[in-house]
Amino acid sequence: MELSPKTARQIFEDVKANPARARFGFGRKAVLINIDVQCAYTQPAEFKTAYETDPRQIEHINRLARGFRARQWPVVWTFVAYMDSGEDAGVWGTRTDTPDSLQNIKHGSRRATFDPRAEVQQGVDVVYNKRMASAFFETALQSLLVWHQVDTVIITGGSTSGCVRATTVDSLMRGYRTIVPEECVADKHESYHFANLTDMALKYADVLAVDEVFRWVEADVESERKGESGSAAVAAATSTPA
Amino acid sequence: MELSPKTARQIFEDVKANPARARFGFGRKAVLINIDVQCAYTQPAEFKTAYETDPRQIEHINRLARGFRARQWPVVWTFVAYMDSGEDAGVWGTRTDTPDSLQNIKHGSRRATFDPRAEVQQGVDVVYNKRMASAFFETALQSLLVWHQVDTVIITGGSTSGCVRATTVDSLMRGYRTIVPEECVADKHESYHFANLTDMALKYADVLAVDEVFRWVEADVESERKGESGSAAVAAATSTPA
Amino acid sequence: MELSPKTARQIFEDVKANPARARFGFGRKAVLINIDVQCAYTQPAEFKTAYETDPRQIEHINRLARGFRARQWPVVWTFVAYMDSGEDAGVWGTRTDTPDSLQNIKHGSRRATFDPRAEVQQGVDVVYNKRMASAFFETALQSLLVWHQVDTVIITGGSTSGCVRATTVDSLMRGYRTIVPEECVADKHESYHFANLTDMALKYADVLAVDEVFRWVEADVESERKGESGSAAVAAATSTPA
Amino acid sequence: MELSPKTARQIFEDVKANPARARFGFGRKAVLINIDVQCAYTQPAEFKTAYETDPRQIEHINRLARGFRARQWPVVWTFVAYMDSGEDAGVWGTRTDTPDSLQNIKHGSRRATFDPRAEVQQGVDVVYNKRMASAFFETALQSLLVWHQVDTVIITGGSTSGCVRATTVDSLMRGYRTIVPEECVADKHESYHFANLTDMALKYADVLAVDEVFRWVEADVESERKGESGSAAVAAATSTPA
Lengths: 242, 242, 242, 242
Fold this sequence. Notes:
The structure is a homotetramer of 242-residue chains.
Chain A: H1 8-16, E1 30-35, H2 39-42, H3 57-70, E2 75-80, E3 126-130, H4 141-148, E4 152-158, H5 160-173, E5 177-181, E6 185-186, H6 190-204, E7 206-208, H7 210-217, H8 221-225, H9 231-239
Parallel strand pairs in A: 1-2, 1-4, 2-3, 4-5, 4-6, 5-7
Helix pairs in contact in A: 1-6, 3-7, 5-6
């Protein structure tokens, strides 16, 4: 095992500084999955379970969502909330029992409510109540992606070391090109945040600047109709199976 | 987001130094899942994808396996290996194409072979060829655990930041008490190793000294028959649903 | 292929007349899954998609539910309902587009509402909005069953040839003893109903008279505490793995 | 519930006689899944678990497989086989224990071997050892289909009332256009066979003459490259989401 005196932040900076790293690449059509952008995690003034990493995180997510809707690509928002009994939190809800405990995020509560800054289009966007870490776990997400025939998954929200990481691993395992716009994910501690960005970048996903993702999503709709969308077309040509 | 000059190793040491952390606890019956104890990952002299963390790792895993078999609890070993086409590695097999690339671990090759030190009892233990990170993903593991009515999952192998982490998250999500014996998991870099031990300990699992796991597994078989196995009975009494 | 002039009803009567058929047997603890007991399927006076088989079906389901709650065993109710776009019905919602079409069962509509005779205890029982045939498909049912450590699944509702059959197959595949109380399932056509009762009885489940299920569920709670519940204990002794 | 003196065969003939039934339709790209074409089920002279429906069944399957390979579309074959302990058959292996019992189809045995007439291209085609009814259940099939970006699933093999039916339901639930070529599926009893063809045709799949499937699969490769493949293009135009 390699030893190192570097912090997780320094190690991620080293990873980013390697411009030659091979990419999974953009594909042909994507889904946007915004994970748990809900007050329990986004309102530090109210809840000690909340955190802020990039102050423009939700603004970026909203812009991505507008771009996706313009292309008629699916936009998904998840949130966690549990039954009064907490039995749907399973073993995850057994270690503590305080107002801040996971299983005590109840349906209809402030903790369970989407952050007011998040532009969730109820009835148009897809909304899932997930109970566990991954947005794929025991939700209808997989069949939605098959039906929409997407090949690329863009993941935002929080936390980087929790639900974002779990969803990223699941997305890659299920066969999707997976992209994490760095400014769009957040965590409560820098070490957790950067260590997981490193793991995702090395193993499971392209961790990109959100500006690059904007350029892809917001590419000329006309060119998209012809199946030629810049770097996406190149990537598809090189690594999609016949 | 909290800032910190500490390394991932230091942060994990802080977590371990907190003896009051609530546990998920041992349950009533467990499965042992030994992940990818195969030459590609365990023979550093042969393969640059291999690594060693605790030199006694495989010895500990073998002792756990003997204890499980003595109690007629299931022992599972996973390995990765792919078709010649690599299509079963999906998008995961697209970033590089060298002899060390994931999708080039071929069936029957040295890379795919269990480490000779690992005491795999073919035909008695359960062996799965997994293709992705989690041992639960697209294998028969979930239904095996239902049929054996286990409530606890013990996870060993490697890498800590890859397949061990992914399996741990899946195990917790699926409702199992999940335990990672620290000396039984390994990684190629200390920062990845310790960062993931921290994530698992804080969110998904009990990260324990292997000696404590030995004591539970090797408890008097007679007491186990009566459904009273020390700390397990206590844990079950406090947090299992009615 | 064996030829036969018999109807599906006659064939099922032959199956029932064989009292020596081996059973999967009751286990130790069960879940009750009541499938789609909602007006679109239970109110023939209102909807042409509805049907009635045994007029006491819902009365029986309610009695089972009371028995389960008395033992603190989980009671699950599912219903189907879709987004305005119908995209969550996927390819299933593409063949017709009338008020009676599946994808047009909308959230909050009369079609999506539980039958008023069904005693659903909101907030106590578990309620899932499923989109597809099986109650296990993309719902949180699997992890709920792990957490409650059930080994037996009792399935009611409709239709016998649709969602009941699909849930029964999924339950058996996942490792559960699966029981269908005959009077508690319904279909729109006798041939579909009886053909599927035959398939389930021969391959996947015990199709039993509801009275026998009542006797098991309503067995003395005291005897249940001792782990001895009549035929259940016998069945468990003969076929549960160590 | 509608009553009827008709046999399952007569009812399926009524369904087929309705040429106006709406279809799911062919999509853009398909997978061929050949289910359990293994001696235990295809050699009636050897095993009483075997059956023959259309004597040209395997010939048709081989022709479909050649067509798929010519288009570089994936060809999948499944078989069932179990550990000596039979624990991987779970509760399904508990009702009988004879040489013909499901759990006694052992790895490497004649029962587990593909029928010698089936042209399985080992190393090129994808082969899964499934343990349960559905080819999707706990195999790597779902991620394979995502990676190949197929939208259509063609299912053959047996039995119609068992593994074919289970796979068909899973395929539809997961969002795929699902097609069952009638001459390519088989069962041991006509009532089971026709009852399940009816259920599939009414609820989950297009049950088509194999000649129509040949025409689609074997369409000019050139036209396929342009994304225009006859009825497929028409179907796609009418019901695929944007």
